Structure to design on (936 residues):
């Protein structure tokens, strides 16, 4: 982190060029003004030399050309809700904020698509298309404040991904500006298209290292008529994991299939209102959507497959109040976690659903051997588990043990055919672990692809994977 | 096409090296033996200098290294069912047939995935996973004979894509050998993963120009309990197109939504058993799948939205015989087409569903002005239309007018925000039209990406887009 090193000021000439591109009120250079554009939700911070707000693509093209010619690092930013430091300008330079490119350009209900600028908030889009009977599947927890551009840069997901996929499955095409300063379209306006290489999905999830997204054509999904919520409590994680596999192997896929493990339940027991049966070792929250005429049949079918010898209780909710009551234990988890361990390490790994029981057991073992308390919850239907290490960051011994523990967690994930990140991305946080998952030949190819898009090496250099 | 030019023989040294890699019975060099590996379903042919059959990845690595060092063109091939010439070795060199790498390595029902070699037939996979209650969504017409490797190379689809997506949405990861001769894994074994760039989808649809797929981890979908078939006949294409938009804007998505236009109906009327009502100007075949308890409700809901002032008749089928009867007119189309115009030009374009009426009207206008008979059918839910120009290839005047007409068809597609290929790919056939759809900057990037994967320029050079 560069916060302790004063960043050299921009030369007068560069500053004038930037101001010319940005126009009135479009440029910040005072460090106090730039400060809030130096952090994200990773607790990292680095001060940029300037912050520019673009209002149209031509400014993005001009800014990239300027940075390319002057060799200035350029970091694109939505609303800074990422958790891995991907938008923290740790090499200084310019932050390009897309918050003013926030127009929904077109919604075409008959073609099930919306064309938006990158600064549109996820919730703003959902509201606009919801009025027409649609939604856009990615639903990160930060939906109220995060931008579509950010969702695409990270390939964001959320609970609904289990049924509806991630950003990659719900985007038809993009308009981008590469690190060369060239504007180009990727993809199509249709739900099929095989002309040329798939640059759309290459840019999605690339964390602003290849190109800056200036427009996106999003595939919309029709809103289901209705929804039901079930809560299944099991005596142990193996029974819960077996239920997840059974649910995912039949044709009625829930629109959310979330879980909490025993340590998460144990923690909430002492800090919040608690209505789980005795002996609860794992909880699944199951949401089903569909037509009003069929939802009951779906509830019965899922109830059947969720039932196994380890099931302690299966409850269902219909009214808003009942749904809120069922979610209470799950919703108590995050505040309780923040209360107990304000500086917890929140990881985001994935294992095949059939290996979840094995994984949680391994974590319990690691917790015992390292003395680090570990609490797990997440998107069970995808095997996407948020592993929380509860540590006191002021205890250097605990910090050292946590680092060891984290190494072991990642090794365990990879030994189970898993991946180191399901939806939070890599950014700075996980960059040095990526080599454990990806083949050297794959990393070398990615470095070369990065060079094709950004030969001057200005776009968010050093994020996502170890680069030169 | 190189068929008229004798291809230089391989040197003795190269031939020995090839034989060493291929092992007993793994190499063909006699032109008569090589001949059938020189064509696909595009009516193009070029004789390769040799055909090698790999049985494991190490042979692929060795062959690529040999071709790379000697500068020999290398064309990978499944079963040659493609329609665009992508597997025709028009620059000579070696054809690598994957037909002997045909093992289903693992099926993991609890993780909803299958790991297969590229030479597995689509139908063989469907049979194996069907026995466990799953299917793999891509269902090209050639399913009985085409390979998974080919399906991935082309990003193949078929009728089910309207509900279940294409190969890109149903593949978790690959094992590939790049043109550098390096073997690497892409993607994950899970349904989520955001570590590194998305090389999986970059390779899918790249028509063997970037890397050779030696193994694929496929995402399976649970088989629906039951299916229903509807046939909706409309007075004109606009009413049918409006029904398609209405169907696609509500939450019950059909698992097939196929159409035939008025000229297709007109053609079948005179050559096959015919049971459409008078005045039929367009037909939709609608298939719905789901649980037995809910299928009736889906049929009613779709029946409602399919109904508009242009609807002439809505019929439904349940028994196998009734289903066969409803499909009779649609199924008569291909044989009739072959009978009338054995050398028809079969195009594969896509327009947004809301523009389909406009598109078909434009085609009717083009047919009148050019005197070329045009018959259209296809996957209406995706706006994916197979445009058939019925010509006599021995009439040079008609051939010239057809070429003009085709130019105009492509221009019309692009003016309606469509794409030049939905599922057949580009290969040789459409290579020279790609520049009309893609930005020059996008094409330049693709050329550079090609160079990253294949710096020696040996893998299927010249296919997919104009290359050096």
């Amino acid at each position: 982190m560069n916060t302790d090193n004063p960043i050299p000021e921009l030369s007068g000439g560069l500053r004038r060029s930037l101001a010319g591109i940005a126009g009135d009120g479009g440029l910040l250079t005072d460090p106090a003004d730039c400060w809030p554009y130096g952090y994200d939700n990773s607790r990292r911070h680095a001060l940029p030399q300037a912050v520019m707000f673009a209002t149209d693509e031509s400014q993005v093209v001009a800014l990239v050309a300027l940075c390319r010619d002057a060799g200035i690092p350029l970091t694109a930013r939505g609303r800074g809700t990422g958790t891995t430091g991907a938008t923290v300008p740790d090499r200084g330079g310019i932050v390009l904020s897309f918050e003013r490119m926030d127009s929904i350009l077109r919604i075409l209900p008959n073609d099930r698509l919306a064309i938006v600028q990158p600064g549109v908030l996820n919730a703003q889009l959902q509201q606009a298309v919801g009025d027409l009977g649609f939604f856009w599947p990615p639903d990160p927890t930060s939906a109220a404040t995060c931008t579509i551009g950010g969702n695409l840069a990270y390939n964001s997901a959320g609970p609904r991904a289990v049924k509806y996929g991630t950003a990659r499955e719900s985007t038809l095409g993009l308009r981008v500006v590469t690190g060369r300063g060239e504007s180009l379209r990727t993809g199509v306006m249709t739900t099929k298209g095989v002309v040329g290489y798939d640059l759309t999905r290459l840019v999605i999830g690339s964390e602003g290292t290849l190109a800056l997204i200036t427009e996106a054509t999003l595939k919309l999904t029709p809103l289901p008529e209705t929804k039901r919520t079930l809560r299944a409590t099991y005596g142990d994680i193996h029974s819960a994991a077996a239920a997840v596999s059974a649910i995912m192997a039949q044709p009625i896929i829930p629109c959310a299939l979330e879980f909490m493990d025993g340590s998460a339940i144990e923690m909430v027991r002492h800090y919040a209102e608690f209505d789980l049966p005795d002996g609860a070792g794992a909880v699944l929250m199951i949401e089903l959507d569909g037509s009003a005429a069929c939802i009951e049949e779906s509830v019965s079918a899922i109830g059947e497959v969720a039932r196994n010898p380890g099931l302690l209780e299966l409850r269902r909710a219909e009214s808003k109040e009942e749904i809120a009551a069922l979610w209470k234990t799950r919703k108590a988890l995050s505040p309780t976690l923040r209360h107990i361990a304000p500086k917890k390490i929140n990881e985001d790994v994935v294992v095949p659903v059939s290996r979840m029981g094995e994984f949680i057991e391994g974590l319990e073992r690691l917790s015992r051997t390292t003395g680090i308390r570990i609490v797990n919850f997440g998107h069970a239907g995808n095997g996407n588990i948020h592993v929380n290490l509860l540590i006191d960051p002021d205890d250097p011994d605990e910090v050292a043990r946590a680092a060891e523990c984290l190494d072991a967690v990642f090794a365990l994930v990879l030994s189970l055919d898993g991946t180191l990140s399901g939806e939070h991305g890599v950014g700075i946080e996980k960059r040095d672990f990526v080599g454990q998952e990806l083949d050297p030949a794959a990393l070398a190819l990615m470095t070369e692809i990065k060079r094709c898009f950004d030969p001057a090496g200005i776009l968010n250099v050093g994020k996502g994977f170890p680069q030169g």
Chain B touches chain A through 97 residues (CB under 8 Å). Residues 110-222 of chain B form a domain with the Uridine Diphospho-n-acetylenolpyruvylglucosamine Reductase; domain 3 fold (CATH 3.30.465.10). Chain B has three domains: 12-97, 110-222, 226-415. Residues 320-340 of chain B form the longest helix (21 residues).
